[in-house]
Design goal:
The chain is an all-alpha fold. It has one domain: Growth Hormone, Chain: A (Up-down Bundle), CATH 1.20.1250.20. Helices cover 73% and strands 1% of the residues. The protein has helices at 10-42, 48-75, 85-104, 108-136, 142-168, 178-201, 229-248, 250-256, 263-292, 295-311, 318-346, 352-371, 373-381, 387-408, and strands at residues 2-3, 206-207. It has a two-stranded parallel ribbon.
Length: 432
């Protein structure tokens, strides 16, 4: 069903964004707090980075594949309940139930299987949920809606990382105690609540496109993505590669390099500082992306990210880490608004979930590769104390720079508010 173009109300922004809170609460509390400490429960101390890297890589690889498949089927679903809501509901319910397996895991292999199943379920919901923005939001509002969605996600991440950090500091390593079960229950319950809100409040129908010329460059081709989407996703890969490295090994970095006594609660404090910075940054960045264009903001994001990565070489206490984290929070907030808005602009109307699944495949690919950094950390640390951590920080800085170079190669006017009209793909046809 296609509805006429309309301006969204504030309540529509909230309804479209609320599931982002639940998804981020689940993924971030697992990735930054619960899984590193579960790895310590089950893995040798000397190989903790390697075990964590393999675990999170398996989860990311699963997410990448699931989003591609589910996006394909979501675009072609003709159920009376809609194209998106059945997948959002099914995935969220499964993820909530399967969280129990993470707590019950008595071996590393069991933990890997449990995490992969949770990731599979959560990502059944993810790409159909991402496609809601393309379905529902006029292009002139996508920067702002992307910002509100990102604010919801950042809020979920901040709140749950802070709470689970303090809870898991009380967890006794090598045991499955009450604190572990409480830390697992909180994001699961939040995921369930936000799923119910979304399937009840969000319409599952497509917004009509504004009238367009029917010939030449402006002729719409709904089935094909923008010809430069591949280059943009390559840039996004390097941005998320850097971000994934910084996120995954924060707890172990604070424990081994900064030598903090309570690294889990320190990660929670850091998450609040970074998350609040992201939240403050997101909406202004989204509004500027709608007004000034996406590219200039992405340059700023890359510069701040690269600088922040190198400043970690100087960190000696939690205050230093928090200040650097605030700088990185601005970089992340800008990328989440401008980058996601530009990706959404470039996918087609008819195959939005499939092509956004492909976009998430590239972005999650950066996160997945980042997870393998644990092997490098443990290997290089064998030659010199903390050499592995410093090598990966250098890689982060370089990745932000490569992403900026790829953004610069896009043939878009820096002052353009929107991307050029869709054309046939050149060498990349996600919709085919």
């Amino acid at each position: 069903m296609v509805t006429k173009v309309r301006e969204l109300r504030p309540i529509d922004y909230v309804n479209i964004s609320v599931l982002g809170f639940g998804l981020a609460a689940l993924s971030t509390s697992l990735g930054q707090i619960i899984l590193p400490l579960r790895v310590l429960d089950l893995a040798p101390e000397s190989l903790k980075n390697t075990y964590l890297g393999i675990l999170t890589f398996a989860a990311m690889a699963t997410a990448m594949l699931v989003q591609l498949v589910v996006g394909y089927f979501s675009d072609r679903t003709t159920l009376r309940w809609g194209r998106r809501r059945p997948y959002i509901a099914a995935g969220s319910i499964l993820a909530t139930v399967l969280m129990v397996g993470i707590g019950m895991a008595m071996s590393y292999l069991w933990l890997v299987v449990a995490v992969v199943l949770v990731q599979t379920s959560a990502n059944i919901a993810q790409s159909p949920y991402d496609a809601v923005v393309k379905d529902q939001v006029p292009q002139s509002q996508r920067g702002r809606v992307s910002s509100i969605r990102a604010i919801a996600g950042a809020s979920g991440a901040v709140l749950l990382v802070l709470i689970t950090g303090f809870i898991m500091d009380r967890h006794v390593v090598k045991e499955r105690d009450l604190w572990l079960w409480l830390a697992l229950a909180l994001p699961a319950v939040i995921m369930a609540i936000t799923m119910i809100w979304t399937v009840v409040a969000v319409r599952d129908e497509r917004v009509a496109k504004p009238p367009q010329k029917e010939s030449g460059r402006d002729k719409p081709r709904d089935g094909k993505a923008h010809p430069q989407l591949g280059r943009l996703l390559a840039a996004g890969f390097f941005f998320t590669l850097a971000g994934g490295i910084l996120q995954t090994y924060t707890l172990f970095f604070l424990k081994d390099v900064v030598e903090l006594e309570n690294p889990a609660s320190a990660v929670g404090i850091l998450a609040v500082a970074v998350g609040l910075t992201i939240i403050i940054t997101l909406y202004p960045a989204g509004a500027l992306a709608d007004r000034l264009g996406r590219k200039p903001l992405l340059y700023i994001s890359a510069a701040l990210g690269s600088t922040g990565s190198l400043l970690f070489f100087l960190a000696q206490n939690l205050t230093h880490v928090v200040l650097i984290g605030i700088l990185l929070g601005v970089a992340v907030g800008i990328f989440m608004s401008a980058g996601r808005a530009l990706i959404t602009d470039m996918v087609s109307e008819r195959r939005a979930a499939q092509q956004l699944g492909l976009a998430n495949f590239a972005l999650l690919g950066g996160l997945a590769v980042a997870k393998l950094g644990g092997v490098g950390i443990d290997f290089l640390n064998g030659f010199s104390d903390n050499l592995g951590y410093y090598a990966l920080l250098t890689l982060c800085a370089a990745s932000f720079c490569v992403g900026a170079l790829l953004i610069n190669s896009l043939n878009l006017s820096p002052s353009s508010k929107v991307t050029p009209p869709l054309e046939p793909s050149l060498g990349m046809r996600p919709g085919d």
